[in-house]
Amino acid sequence: MDSSKIAPENFQQPDEFYKGLGFKPGRGRQSKELMDRRCHLDKMGQDFQHHELCWSCGWSTNDQLGSTYGSRVRILMSRHNRGLWALGSQLLLKDIPNDGHGPGNDYITYRWLRSQSGLDIPLLDRMEVLSKPTDKTYLLLMSRAEGEPLTNLWHKLLPEQKESLRGQLFLILKQLRIFTALGAQDVEGGKLDDLLIGDCPVPRPRYKKIGFTADKWFESLKSELQVGLAKKHKTKDMTIIEAEYQKLKGRFPNPEPYVLTHGDLDFSNIIVKDNQITAIIDWEHAGYYPWWAEHYLCGDVAFGQSSSLLFPVLYRLDPGMEARIKDVYNKVLEVRGLWESCKREHPHYHDRWYRPPFSACEPYAGHFLRGVAGGIQEREHTIQDLNLLNFE
Protein backbone atom coordinates (compact mmCIF):
# COMPACT_ATOMS: atom_id res chain seq x y z
CA MET A 1 0.00 0.00 0.00
CA ASP A 2 1.08 3.56 -0.66
CA SER A 3 1.86 4.85 2.84
CA SER A 4 1.60 8.44 1.59
CA LYS A 5 -2.16 7.94 1.29
CA ILE A 6 -2.65 6.72 4.85
CA ALA A 7 -3.53 9.55 7.23
CA PRO A 8 -1.46 9.15 10.42
CA GLU A 9 -3.30 9.04 13.70
CA ASN A 10 -1.07 11.58 15.43
CA PHE A 11 -3.94 14.00 15.85
CA GLN A 12 -1.82 16.63 17.63
CA GLN A 13 0.46 17.11 14.62
CA PRO A 14 -1.69 17.41 11.46
CA ASP A 15 1.24 19.02 9.63
CA GLU A 16 2.96 15.62 9.57
CA PHE A 17 0.52 14.57 6.86
CA TYR A 18 -1.36 17.55 5.46
CA LYS A 19 1.00 19.65 3.39
CA GLY A 20 0.92 23.43 3.18
CA LEU A 21 -0.47 24.09 6.67
CA GLY A 22 0.41 27.35 8.36
CA PHE A 23 0.91 27.27 12.16
CA LYS A 24 -0.20 30.04 14.53
CA PRO A 25 0.30 29.66 18.32
CA GLY A 26 -2.92 30.12 20.28
CA ARG A 27 -1.69 33.24 22.11
CA GLY A 28 0.99 34.25 19.69
CA ARG A 29 1.12 36.38 16.59
CA GLN A 30 1.05 34.81 13.19
CA SER A 31 3.92 35.57 10.87
CA LYS A 32 3.58 38.15 8.11
CA GLU A 33 4.03 35.39 5.56
CA LEU A 34 1.06 33.52 7.03
CA MET A 35 -0.99 36.71 7.23
CA ASP A 36 -0.36 37.39 3.55
CA ARG A 37 -1.28 33.82 2.64
CA ARG A 38 -4.48 33.92 4.70
CA CYS A 39 -5.69 37.42 3.83
CA HIS A 40 -7.65 36.52 0.71
CA LEU A 41 -8.83 33.20 2.15
CA ASP A 42 -10.16 34.75 5.36
CA LYS A 43 -12.22 37.25 3.36
CA MET A 44 -13.74 34.39 1.37
CA GLY A 45 -14.64 32.62 4.62
CA GLN A 46 -16.62 35.62 5.86
CA ASP A 47 -19.03 35.55 2.94
CA PHE A 48 -19.44 32.09 1.50
CA GLN A 49 -22.26 29.99 0.16
CA HIS A 50 -22.55 26.41 1.32
CA HIS A 51 -21.77 24.00 -1.48
CA GLU A 52 -20.03 20.71 -2.15
CA LEU A 53 -16.30 20.87 -2.87
CA CYS A 54 -15.68 17.20 -3.69
CA TRP A 55 -18.35 15.23 -5.56
CA SER A 56 -16.67 11.92 -4.66
CA CYS A 57 -16.48 12.20 -0.86
CA GLY A 58 -19.05 14.97 -0.26
CA TRP A 59 -16.65 17.37 1.48
CA SER A 60 -18.31 20.78 1.62
CA THR A 61 -17.43 24.40 2.35
CA ASN A 62 -18.89 23.93 5.86
CA ASP A 63 -16.54 21.01 6.48
CA GLN A 64 -13.55 22.93 5.15
CA LEU A 65 -14.16 26.10 7.14
CA GLY A 66 -15.91 24.91 10.27
CA SER A 67 -14.21 21.75 11.51
CA THR A 68 -10.87 20.39 12.66
CA TYR A 69 -11.59 17.12 10.91
CA GLY A 70 -9.21 15.49 8.45
CA SER A 71 -10.52 12.21 7.14
CA ARG A 72 -8.86 8.99 8.27
CA VAL A 73 -10.84 7.26 5.53
CA ARG A 74 -8.88 7.60 2.31
CA ILE A 75 -8.94 6.01 -1.11
CA LEU A 76 -5.95 3.74 -1.73
CA MET A 77 -6.86 2.36 -5.12
CA SER A 78 -9.69 2.46 -7.62
CA ARG A 79 -10.21 0.23 -10.62
CA HIS A 80 -13.29 -0.05 -12.79
CA ASN A 81 -16.17 0.52 -10.33
CA ARG A 82 -14.25 -0.75 -7.31
CA GLY A 83 -12.59 1.16 -4.53
CA LEU A 84 -10.16 0.15 -1.78
CA TRP A 85 -10.17 2.48 1.22
CA ALA A 86 -7.93 2.81 4.25
CA LEU A 87 -9.94 3.10 7.47
CA GLY A 88 -7.38 4.57 9.82
CA SER A 89 -4.07 2.74 9.89
CA GLN A 90 -5.20 -0.83 10.65
CA LEU A 91 -8.24 -1.57 8.48
CA LEU A 92 -9.15 -1.65 4.80
CA LEU A 93 -12.54 -1.55 3.09
CA LYS A 94 -13.43 -2.87 -0.36
CA ASP A 95 -16.40 -1.05 -1.91
CA ILE A 96 -17.86 -2.90 -4.92
CA PRO A 97 -21.23 -3.34 -6.68
CA ASN A 98 -23.09 -6.27 -5.13
CA ASP A 99 -24.07 -8.04 -8.34
CA GLY A 100 -22.83 -11.52 -7.46
CA HIS A 101 -19.62 -11.02 -9.40
CA GLY A 102 -17.54 -9.03 -6.91
CA PRO A 103 -14.70 -10.40 -4.79
CA GLY A 104 -17.00 -12.66 -2.79
CA ASN A 105 -14.70 -15.58 -3.55
CA ASP A 106 -11.91 -13.82 -1.64
CA TYR A 107 -14.01 -13.93 1.54
CA ILE A 108 -15.43 -17.41 0.82
CA THR A 109 -11.94 -18.87 0.37
CA TYR A 110 -10.57 -17.01 3.41
CA ARG A 111 -13.40 -18.31 5.58
CA TRP A 112 -12.94 -21.88 4.25
CA LEU A 113 -9.18 -21.86 4.89
CA ARG A 114 -9.76 -20.54 8.41
CA SER A 115 -12.13 -23.44 9.07
CA GLN A 116 -9.55 -26.10 8.17
CA SER A 117 -7.76 -27.40 11.26
CA GLY A 118 -4.00 -27.73 11.24
CA LEU A 119 -3.30 -25.31 8.38
CA ASP A 120 -0.42 -22.87 8.77
CA ILE A 121 -1.09 -20.55 5.84
CA PRO A 122 -0.50 -16.85 6.62
CA LEU A 123 -3.79 -15.00 6.16
CA LEU A 124 -5.20 -11.66 7.21
CA ASP A 125 -6.21 -11.58 10.88
CA ARG A 126 -9.66 -10.31 10.04
CA MET A 127 -12.07 -10.35 7.13
CA GLU A 128 -15.75 -9.52 7.50
CA VAL A 129 -18.61 -8.79 5.10
CA LEU A 130 -20.45 -5.70 6.35
CA SER A 131 -23.19 -5.60 3.73
CA LYS A 132 -26.31 -7.73 3.52
CA PRO A 133 -26.88 -10.07 0.55
CA THR A 134 -29.72 -7.80 -0.62
CA ASP A 135 -27.66 -4.59 -0.48
CA LYS A 136 -26.65 -3.07 -3.80
CA THR A 137 -23.12 -2.39 -2.54
CA TYR A 138 -20.76 -5.11 -1.30
CA LEU A 139 -18.59 -3.93 1.60
CA LEU A 140 -15.72 -6.13 2.75
CA LEU A 141 -13.77 -5.10 5.85
CA MET A 142 -10.23 -6.43 6.20
CA SER A 143 -7.34 -6.00 8.58
CA ARG A 144 -4.11 -4.68 7.14
CA ALA A 145 -1.27 -7.19 6.85
CA GLU A 146 2.02 -6.31 8.53
CA GLY A 147 4.77 -5.62 6.04
CA GLU A 148 4.73 -4.61 2.40
CA PRO A 149 4.13 -6.30 -0.95
CA LEU A 150 7.00 -8.36 -2.28
CA THR A 151 6.81 -6.15 -5.37
CA ASN A 152 8.68 -3.48 -3.40
CA LEU A 153 11.33 -5.84 -2.03
CA TRP A 154 12.25 -8.67 -4.41
CA HIS A 155 14.75 -6.72 -6.51
CA LYS A 156 16.63 -5.65 -3.34
CA LEU A 157 16.92 -9.07 -1.71
CA LEU A 158 20.08 -11.17 -1.45
CA PRO A 159 20.07 -14.66 -3.03
CA GLU A 160 19.83 -16.33 0.38
CA GLN A 161 16.85 -14.14 1.32
CA LYS A 162 15.07 -15.09 -1.89
CA GLU A 163 15.76 -18.75 -1.20
CA SER A 164 14.30 -18.36 2.29
CA LEU A 165 11.09 -16.96 0.81
CA ARG A 166 10.93 -19.85 -1.66
CA GLY A 167 11.16 -22.23 1.28
CA GLN A 168 8.31 -20.46 3.06
CA LEU A 169 6.14 -20.46 -0.06
CA PHE A 170 6.89 -24.16 -0.57
CA LEU A 171 5.39 -24.95 2.85
CA ILE A 172 2.35 -22.79 2.10
CA LEU A 173 1.60 -24.34 -1.31
CA LYS A 174 2.33 -27.83 -0.04
CA GLN A 175 -0.56 -27.42 2.39
CA LEU A 176 -2.79 -25.81 -0.22
CA ARG A 177 -2.28 -28.44 -2.92
CA ILE A 178 -3.19 -31.29 -0.58
CA PHE A 179 -6.81 -30.31 -1.22
CA THR A 180 -8.21 -31.74 -4.46
CA ALA A 181 -11.60 -31.99 -6.17
CA LEU A 182 -13.19 -34.06 -8.92
CA GLY A 183 -13.47 -31.03 -11.20
CA ALA A 184 -13.02 -27.29 -11.59
CA GLN A 185 -14.87 -25.35 -8.88
CA ASP A 186 -14.43 -22.92 -6.02
CA VAL A 187 -14.22 -24.16 -2.43
CA GLU A 188 -18.02 -24.14 -2.15
CA GLY A 189 -18.63 -25.94 -5.44
CA GLY A 190 -19.38 -22.85 -7.55
CA LYS A 191 -18.11 -22.21 -11.07
CA LEU A 192 -14.77 -20.55 -11.78
CA ASP A 193 -14.23 -17.77 -14.30
CA ASP A 194 -12.24 -19.03 -17.26
CA LEU A 195 -8.92 -17.21 -16.89
CA LEU A 196 -7.05 -19.94 -18.77
CA ILE A 197 -8.58 -20.06 -22.27
CA GLY A 198 -11.93 -18.29 -22.66
CA ASP A 199 -10.66 -15.13 -21.04
CA CYS A 200 -12.28 -12.12 -22.67
CA PRO A 201 -10.50 -8.88 -21.69
CA VAL A 202 -13.41 -7.63 -19.59
CA PRO A 203 -13.96 -7.47 -15.84
CA ARG A 204 -16.59 -9.50 -14.06
CA PRO A 205 -19.06 -10.82 -14.89
CA ARG A 206 -17.02 -12.85 -17.35
CA TYR A 207 -19.10 -14.80 -19.82
CA LYS A 208 -17.09 -18.02 -19.90
CA LYS A 209 -16.65 -20.41 -16.99
CA ILE A 210 -14.28 -23.36 -16.72
CA GLY A 211 -16.25 -26.55 -17.29
CA PHE A 212 -16.28 -29.02 -14.41
CA THR A 213 -14.55 -31.58 -16.68
CA ALA A 214 -12.40 -31.15 -19.79
CA ASP A 215 -15.33 -32.28 -21.97
CA LYS A 216 -17.67 -29.68 -20.45
CA TRP A 217 -14.96 -27.05 -20.71
CA PHE A 218 -14.49 -27.68 -24.42
CA GLU A 219 -18.25 -27.73 -24.94
CA SER A 220 -18.51 -24.20 -23.50
CA LEU A 221 -15.81 -23.01 -25.94
CA LYS A 222 -16.95 -25.00 -28.96
CA SER A 223 -18.45 -22.26 -31.15
CA GLU A 224 -15.42 -19.99 -30.80
CA LEU A 225 -12.99 -22.87 -31.36
CA GLN A 226 -14.89 -23.97 -34.45
CA VAL A 227 -14.56 -20.46 -35.89
CA GLY A 228 -10.85 -20.49 -35.06
CA LEU A 229 -10.42 -23.86 -36.79
CA ALA A 230 -12.38 -22.65 -39.83
CA LYS A 231 -9.96 -19.73 -40.14
CA LYS A 232 -6.89 -21.88 -39.57
CA HIS A 233 -7.85 -24.51 -42.14
CA LYS A 234 -9.57 -22.05 -44.49
CA THR A 235 -12.73 -24.11 -44.73
CA LYS A 236 -16.45 -23.94 -43.96
CA ASP A 237 -16.82 -27.71 -44.17
CA MET A 238 -18.24 -28.74 -40.80
CA THR A 239 -17.04 -32.31 -41.27
CA ILE A 240 -13.44 -31.11 -41.44
CA ILE A 241 -13.95 -28.58 -38.65
CA GLU A 242 -15.51 -31.18 -36.34
CA ALA A 243 -12.70 -33.66 -37.03
CA GLU A 244 -10.09 -31.00 -36.20
CA TYR A 245 -12.05 -30.02 -33.09
CA GLN A 246 -11.94 -33.60 -31.82
CA LYS A 247 -8.20 -33.81 -32.50
CA LEU A 248 -7.69 -30.55 -30.61
CA LYS A 249 -9.67 -31.87 -27.67
CA GLY A 250 -7.71 -35.11 -27.71
CA ARG A 251 -4.39 -33.24 -27.54
CA PHE A 252 -5.42 -31.10 -24.58
CA PRO A 253 -3.37 -31.80 -21.43
CA ASN A 254 -5.03 -33.85 -18.73
CA PRO A 255 -6.39 -31.38 -16.14
CA GLU A 256 -6.43 -33.95 -13.34
CA PRO A 257 -5.79 -33.69 -10.50
CA TYR A 258 -7.71 -30.50 -9.77
CA VAL A 259 -5.78 -28.91 -6.91
CA LEU A 260 -6.57 -25.94 -4.70
CA THR A 261 -4.94 -22.98 -6.40
CA HIS A 262 -4.55 -19.32 -5.43
CA GLY A 263 -4.81 -18.18 -9.03
CA ASP A 264 -2.99 -14.84 -8.77
CA LEU A 265 0.30 -15.32 -6.93
CA ASP A 266 1.70 -12.05 -8.12
CA PHE A 267 4.31 -10.34 -5.92
CA SER A 268 1.68 -7.75 -4.97
CA ASN A 269 -0.35 -10.47 -3.22
CA ILE A 270 2.53 -11.74 -1.08
CA ILE A 271 3.12 -9.53 1.97
CA VAL A 272 6.52 -9.71 3.66
CA LYS A 273 8.05 -8.28 6.83
CA ASP A 274 11.63 -8.96 7.95
CA ASN A 275 11.91 -11.53 5.14
CA GLN A 276 8.97 -13.50 6.52
CA ILE A 277 5.74 -13.98 4.58
CA THR A 278 3.09 -12.45 6.83
CA ALA A 279 0.07 -12.85 4.55
CA ILE A 280 -1.10 -14.21 1.22
CA ILE A 281 -3.92 -11.91 0.10
CA ASP A 282 -6.51 -11.56 -2.71
CA TRP A 283 -7.96 -15.07 -3.01
CA GLU A 284 -10.53 -13.73 -5.47
CA HIS A 285 -9.65 -16.25 -8.19
CA ALA A 286 -8.91 -19.20 -5.90
CA GLY A 287 -10.40 -22.63 -6.45
CA TYR A 288 -9.73 -26.13 -7.74
CA TYR A 289 -7.93 -25.79 -11.07
CA PRO A 290 -5.96 -28.20 -13.27
CA TRP A 291 -2.65 -29.11 -11.64
CA TRP A 292 -0.73 -26.91 -14.10
CA ALA A 293 -2.89 -23.78 -13.69
CA GLU A 294 -0.89 -22.01 -10.93
CA HIS A 295 2.20 -22.15 -13.14
CA TYR A 296 0.30 -21.04 -16.23
CA LEU A 297 -1.51 -18.18 -14.49
CA CYS A 298 1.73 -16.92 -12.98
CA GLY A 299 3.25 -16.67 -16.44
CA ASP A 300 0.10 -15.27 -18.03
CA VAL A 301 -1.89 -13.19 -15.57
CA ALA A 302 1.11 -11.80 -13.67
CA PHE A 303 3.20 -11.46 -16.84
CA GLY A 304 5.89 -13.61 -15.28
CA GLN A 305 6.73 -11.09 -12.55
CA SER A 306 6.73 -13.66 -9.76
CA SER A 307 7.94 -16.60 -11.83
CA SER A 308 11.46 -16.44 -10.35
CA LEU A 309 9.89 -17.09 -6.95
CA LEU A 310 7.05 -19.43 -7.85
CA PHE A 311 8.40 -21.72 -10.58
CA PRO A 312 11.22 -23.29 -8.50
CA VAL A 313 8.70 -23.88 -5.70
CA LEU A 314 6.24 -25.65 -8.01
CA TYR A 315 9.03 -27.80 -9.48
CA ARG A 316 10.04 -28.81 -5.97
CA LEU A 317 6.43 -29.67 -5.09
CA ASP A 318 6.02 -31.71 -8.27
CA PRO A 319 9.43 -32.96 -9.49
CA GLY A 320 7.96 -34.03 -12.83
CA MET A 321 6.34 -30.67 -13.60
CA GLU A 322 9.38 -28.95 -15.12
CA ALA A 323 9.77 -31.69 -17.75
CA ARG A 324 6.05 -31.63 -18.64
CA ILE A 325 5.15 -27.96 -18.40
CA LYS A 326 6.45 -26.85 -21.81
CA ASP A 327 4.30 -29.45 -23.55
CA VAL A 328 1.31 -28.35 -21.45
CA TYR A 329 1.89 -24.70 -22.40
CA ASN A 330 2.12 -25.52 -26.10
CA LYS A 331 -1.16 -27.43 -26.05
CA VAL A 332 -3.04 -24.90 -23.91
CA LEU A 333 -1.75 -22.00 -26.00
CA GLU A 334 -2.82 -23.79 -29.18
CA VAL A 335 -6.40 -23.87 -27.89
CA ARG A 336 -6.23 -20.31 -26.57
CA GLY A 337 -4.84 -19.06 -29.87
CA LEU A 338 -7.81 -20.53 -31.75
CA TRP A 339 -10.19 -19.01 -29.20
CA GLU A 340 -8.59 -15.57 -29.58
CA SER A 341 -8.70 -15.72 -33.38
CA CYS A 342 -12.50 -15.73 -33.17
CA LYS A 343 -13.84 -12.18 -33.14
CA ARG A 344 -16.12 -11.57 -30.18
CA GLU A 345 -18.08 -8.56 -29.03
CA HIS A 346 -19.74 -7.42 -25.82
CA PRO A 347 -22.62 -5.11 -26.83
CA HIS A 348 -22.86 -1.78 -25.00
CA TYR A 349 -19.53 -2.42 -23.25
CA HIS A 350 -18.10 0.90 -24.50
CA ASP A 351 -21.14 3.05 -23.67
CA ARG A 352 -19.95 5.86 -21.42
CA TRP A 353 -20.94 9.01 -19.61
CA TYR A 354 -18.27 11.74 -19.55
CA ARG A 355 -17.65 13.39 -16.22
CA PRO A 356 -17.43 17.17 -15.93
CA PRO A 357 -14.08 18.60 -14.81
CA PHE A 358 -13.29 17.93 -11.16
CA SER A 359 -13.03 21.68 -10.61
CA ALA A 360 -12.12 24.81 -12.52
CA CYS A 361 -8.53 24.70 -11.27
CA GLU A 362 -8.26 20.89 -11.58
CA PRO A 363 -9.80 20.22 -15.00
CA TYR A 364 -9.55 16.43 -14.89
CA ALA A 365 -12.63 14.71 -16.26
CA GLY A 366 -12.68 10.99 -17.14
CA HIS A 367 -15.85 8.97 -17.63
CA PHE A 368 -18.19 6.28 -16.32
CA LEU A 369 -17.84 3.23 -18.60
CA ARG A 370 -20.90 0.98 -18.73
CA GLY A 371 -18.90 -2.18 -19.42
CA VAL A 372 -16.92 -2.01 -16.18
CA ALA A 373 -19.60 -0.47 -13.95
CA GLY A 374 -21.01 -3.78 -12.68
CA GLY A 375 -24.60 -4.24 -11.58
CA ILE A 376 -25.41 -6.84 -14.25
CA GLN A 377 -25.95 -10.56 -13.77
CA GLU A 378 -24.61 -11.77 -17.10
CA ARG A 379 -22.24 -10.32 -19.69
CA GLU A 380 -23.54 -10.05 -23.26
CA HIS A 381 -21.22 -12.04 -25.54
CA THR A 382 -21.66 -12.38 -29.29
CA ILE A 383 -19.54 -14.11 -31.94
CA GLN A 384 -18.99 -11.95 -35.00
CA ASP A 385 -17.51 -14.69 -37.20
CA LEU A 386 -20.30 -17.28 -37.14
CA ASN A 387 -20.81 -16.70 -40.86
CA LEU A 388 -17.56 -18.65 -41.38
CA LEU A 389 -19.33 -21.84 -40.33
CA ASN A 390 -21.59 -23.80 -42.65
CA PHE A 391 -24.26 -25.38 -40.46
CA GLU A 392 -26.24 -26.80 -43.39
TrEMBL record:
GO molecular function, one term: kinase activity
InterPro entries linked: AGP_Transferase, Aminoglycoside_PTrfase, Kinase-like_dom_sf
SUPFAM superfamilies linked: Protein kinase-like (PK-like)
Domain Aminoglycoside phosphotransferase, residue spans: 138-298
Gene3D superfamilies: 3.90.1200.10
Origin superkingdom: Eukaryota
Any Pfam family: APH
UniProt KW keywords: Kinase, Transferase
Full protein name: Protein kinase-like (PK-like)
Organism of derivation: Glarea lozoyensis (strain ATCC 20868 / MF5171)
Source lineage: Eukaryota, Fungi, Dikarya, Ascomycota, Pezizomycotina
